[in-house]
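Question: does this match?
>
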Amino acid sequence: MRLNSHRSIALFATGLGIALLIALFSPLASTSPDGLERVAEDKGFMETAKEPPFKVMADYAFPWVGNEKAATILAGMAGALLVAGMTSGLAFGLQRIGKRRPAGSNGRQTTADSDT
């Protein structure tokens, strides 16, 4: 394993840890409407909004968790883990695609291509 991959893993873990820590403080966020909701209220077209066809996590909270703050924290953590997993999968897949040899190559590995 290369030194850069250890550094990448450490940076990824640090970023994920920070995101999970921030999720702990999500119940302290403002209860005021976000920018889009505020404009819709100010301009008077909030009542014309339609409900989405489905809701994964309505109001950024797990519906089956009784405590509202805990539900918000869990939703934030689940979102952070989901994004981290999707990003890791994409990075891993792109890395594997980048290591493929073009058709017609002789299969020899030069020192510039090696992982050492």
